[in-house]
Amino acid sequence: MATAIAKAQETFGRIDVLVNNAGYGYFTSIEEGEEEKIRAQFDTNFFGLVHMIQAVLPVMRQQRSGHIINFSSIGGLVGFTATGYYHATKFAVEGLSESLSKEVGPLGITVLLVEPGPFRTDWAGRSTARTEVQLDDYKESVGARMAASLEGSGHQKGDPVRGCEAIIQAVETASPPLRLLLGEMAYKLAMEKADSMKANFSAWKDLTLSADFQE
């Protein structure tokens, strides 16, 4: 990391954009997840991103400018069966990025969370770790999704080229968004999640407010 950053500064005299795109999936039930694989995924999907941000921020702070693009996923907003640990890494990226945007925004640095749905990459193929379901209770939920994801790999609706063009367009606007959903499925699932959360919060409003001191 240090070598790459030094080379970029030597070549360009500055660093304008950091893209944290490294990440992969891990298919398993929560109960059957293997700690070594879980920690390895967090090392790549979350801690690798953290280390790159920490390494680049001194340069961007000095410049008082820069764009940090963190790849999350629609799986950073919505959880499904079979990929619980992947969701955990992406939910972590979401929380970190939201806080980061508030810390570095006043310094002229923007943060963009990219939240793709299914794209025609190898994410669900060679790039995915797996722990096969052994427990019968999970075979129809976790096991079925694992099989469906593998079968659909290479046929996803999302176009990586068009997705990259959308990211560039968002970054080049005068006021880049904090979150950029990519693809129809991502938009649909995110809106459903937002509606579901709002309905949940509203339904339990009275009990929620009852937790405060009654003064």
Question: Could you explain how this protein is built, in words?
Answer:
- With 215 residues, the protein is an alpha/beta fold.
- The protein has one domain: NAD(P)-binding Rossmann-like Domain (Rossmann fold, 3-Layer(aba) Sandwich), CATH 3.40.50.720.
- The chain is built from 7 helices and 6 strands.
- The protein has helices at residues 2-12, 35-63, 84-104, 139-152, 160-171, 184-203, 205-209; strands at 17-20, 26-27, 66-71, 109-116, 129-130, 179-182.
- Strands 1-3-4-6 form a 4-stranded parallel β-sheet, with helices on both faces. It has a two-stranded parallel sheet with strand order 2-5.
- Helix 3 links the parallel strand 3 (66-71) and strand 4.
- It is globular and about 60 Å long.
- The model has no long low-confidence stretch (mean pLDDT 94).
Fold blueprint:
Elements: H1 2-12, E1 17-20, E2 26-27, H2 35-63, E3 66-71, H3 84-104, E4 109-116, E5 129-130, H4 139-152, H5 160-171, E6 179-182, H6 184-203, H7 205-209
Parallel strand pairs: 1-3, 2-5, 3-4, 4-6
Name a few traits of the molecule.
4-stranded parallel β-sheet; 7 helices; 215 residues; Rossmann fold; globular; alpha/beta; two-stranded parallel sheet
Reading side by side through the largest sheet, how are the strands ordered? 1-3-4-6
Query: What is the terminal-to-terminal distance?
Result: 54 Å
Give the beta-strand count: 6
Label the overall shape.
globular
> What fold name stands as the CATH topology?
Rossmann fold
Q: Topology as H/E string?
A: HEEHEHEEHHEHH
Low-confidence stretches: none
Number of self-contained structural domains: 1
CATH architecture: 3-Layer(aba) Sandwich
Mean pLDDT across residues:
94
CATH class descriptor name: Alpha Beta
* Corresponding CATH superfamily: NAD(P)-binding Rossmann-like Domain
Main β-sheet description = 4 strands, parallel
Rg from Cα: 19 Å
Tally of contiguous helical segments: 7
Oligomer: single chain
